[in-house]
Amino acid sequence: MANNSNSSFVADLSSQITLYSPIIIIIMGNIGCILNFMTFTSRKLIRTSYSLYCLSSTVFDLLTLDFGALTRLLIDHFGYNIQNYSQVYCKIRFYLINTFPTSSTCFIVLAAMDRYLSTSSKLKYRSFATRKRAICLILISLFICILFYAHYLVFADLRPTCSIQPGIYSLFTVIYSLVVTSFIPHFLMLYFGFGTLYHIRTARHRTVAVFNTQQNRRQRTEIQLVTMTLFQVTISTILIGARMAYYSYNVITANAVKTSDQKTLDTFFSELTTQLFYLNYAKSFYIYTLSSRVFRRILIVRVTQLSQRCFCQQSRHHVTRT
């Protein structure tokens, strides 16, 4: 009886998590993405290659939340089962819920690489951190991400509900996600992140000249952008790492005989890590705000400007009517 009671509690908790967590994540994520757009399109940041990567990542964060997380919520709690009746939608959904988050992660890797190159002591490396090269890398990376998950368009189908082909291909998709979506990009993020820290420390020891005010301001901005990137990389690695750990466990125990209690716990951790996965694409604005004074200052200026503009338009409209 105690085991049944515990299983029932875990199942109820899992249901509550899949209902309320995505609602909060989607709302907060959308607000954060909008404020990211406002901040990174400011005059001070839009000139940097770093802002282009962050804006690109924000676009795919928004798509991940408003398509991936939202359709998952509708499927789990609101009877939205079109994927089980439409073969085309089944294939497209599998494809997009993997392509969108991978694209976002890819642009964060590029942002980390941009900070790594821009803080290098070698001019030839710093010359790669330009807007023109950033646009080229964004387009190339997007094309690669589009191709990476094309196999879902072939192997996802109605069996009789929407699922991928069982057996070898199912195992392949798990390992593929572990390596391509999780391990490689987050290894690169950490590599570029720690490499950037090394560049900053060596630059401080090497610098002996007195900088003018403009150079000092530029250097402070660079350090703030690096800080934002490092916090983003660290939190992202933790959140995706939880999902990666569950996938690894799933592969290792794939052929194990499990009790009903173990299956209930597996379902719970699957749902929990899924929410942590989507949380990763709702967090960027809040990480930037907490970690960077420059970002906060620019955000306040942009919000103030928008508020004043709206107030002026309302005043003009009122004067016109009177």
Automatic annotation (TrEMBL):
<dbReference type="InterPro" id="IPR017452">
    <property type="entry name" value="GPCR_Rhodpsn_7TM"/>
</dbReference>
<keyword id="KW-1133">Transmembrane helix</keyword>
<dbReference type="GO" id="GO:0016020">
    <property type="term" value="C:membrane"/>
</dbReference>
<feature type="transmembrane region" description="Helical">
    <location>
        <begin position="20"/>
        <end position="40"/>
    </location>
</feature>
<feature type="transmembrane region" description="Helical">
    <location>
        <begin position="95"/>
        <end position="113"/>
    </location>
</feature>
<feature type="transmembrane region" description="Helical">
    <location>
        <begin position="225"/>
        <end position="246"/>
    </location>
</feature>
<dbReference type="Pfam" id="PF00001">
    <property type="entry name" value="7tm_1"/>
</dbReference>
<feature type="transmembrane region" description="Helical">
    <location>
        <begin position="134"/>
        <end position="155"/>
    </location>
</feature>
<feature type="transmembrane region" description="Helical">
    <location>
        <begin position="167"/>
        <end position="194"/>
    </location>
</feature>
<protein>
    <recommendedName>
        <fullName>G-protein coupled receptors family 1 profile domain-containing protein</fullName>
    </recommendedName>
</protein>
<keyword id="KW-0812">Transmembrane</keyword>
<dbReference type="InterPro" id="IPR000276">
    <property type="entry name" value="GPCR_Rhodpsn"/>
</dbReference>
<feature type="domain" description="G-protein coupled receptors family 1 profile">
    <location>
        <begin position="32"/>
        <end position="288"/>
    </location>
</feature>
<dbReference type="GO" id="GO:0004930">
    <property type="term" value="F:G protein-coupled receptor activity"/>
</dbReference>
<feature type="transmembrane region" description="Helical">
    <location>
        <begin position="52"/>
        <end position="75"/>
    </location>
</feature>
<keyword id="KW-0472">Membrane</keyword>
<dbReference type="InterPro" id="IPR052954">
    <property type="entry name" value="GPCR-Ligand_Int"/>
</dbReference>
